[in-house]
Specification:
It is a single chain. By secondary structure, this protein is mainly α. 75% of the residues lie in helices and 0% in strands. Helix 3 (54-78) packs antiparallel against helix 5 (103-112). The longest helix is centred in the N-terminal third of the chain and has 29 residues, at 2-30. 30% of the residues are buried.
Length: 211
């Protein structure tokens, strides 16, 4: 009976993770829409026109890396779950809602990064979406880890503390990036860039996780 219950729980978590993977895939694919072919011009050489689109490349790479790392973290979290409940479904849905919105502020940055003072607003919106995403990750992790009710028995207290600390740290840093945009758009986007490196290095288990 216990084995049957465990298999059922794995099936449910697998279905939710597969659905989430699809949403992440759509969001990351939509980022490329903002990469446009320069208009044919007799005045501006194609090479120069491509170079002038550097904000689009910067926004694309930063957002692609960010969504990829969010997906890796999401995958790692779900490796720690033994079952799901309705609260987890809604918390996960809230996170996915915000993930699908990432292409919009990415488009803003690519369009306005070299235009002042619009660049400050674009970068503030960009950092702001990640403030909300961090809140969503904290909510998701709280739903999972509170009283260990959805976690596998093998998950250690040290693992729980590490993830809790990392997600909590993200909120003030992304908020700082949003506020810095009012002063300097490039510093703001640079901090966002550094943060995805931080998540890449610390936001998940580096050793293989059992399913």
């Amino acid at each position: 009976m216990a084995q049957r219950h465990e298999t059922s729980g794995e099936k449910e978590t697998g279905r939710l993770e597969a659905f989430s993977d699809g949403v992440f895939a759509v969001a990351i694919t939509l980022l490329v829409v903002d990469l446009k072919v320069p208009p044919n011009s007799k005045i501006v050489p194609l090479a120069l026109a491509l170079l002038r689109q550097w904000p689009s490349y910067l926004a694309f790479v930063t957002s692609f890396a960010t969504i990829l790392i969010m997906w890796v973290n999401h995958h790692s979290i779900f490796k720690l779950i033994r079952r799901i409940d309705t609260h987890l479904l809604f918390a996960n849905g809230f996170l996915l809602l915000l993930v699908t919105a990432v292409p919009f502020p990415t488009a803003l940055v690519s369009e306005y990064l070299t235009t002042q003072p619009e660049a400050k607003t674009a970068c503030a919106v960009y950092a702001g979406i990640f403030v909300l995403i961090n809140i969503a990750y904290n909510l998701l992790w709280w739903e999972i880890s509170a009283h260990r009710r959805l976690l596998k028995p093998s998950v250690s207290h040290a693992q729980i503390q590490k993830l809790t600390r990392n997600y909590a740290l993200g909120f003030p840093l992304y908020l700082l990036a949003m506020l810095l945009a009012i002063w300097n758009a490039y510093v703001s986007i640079g901090l966002c860039f550094l943060l995805w490196i931080f998540w890449m290095l610390t936001g998940y288990e580096k050793r293989p996780l059992d399913g």
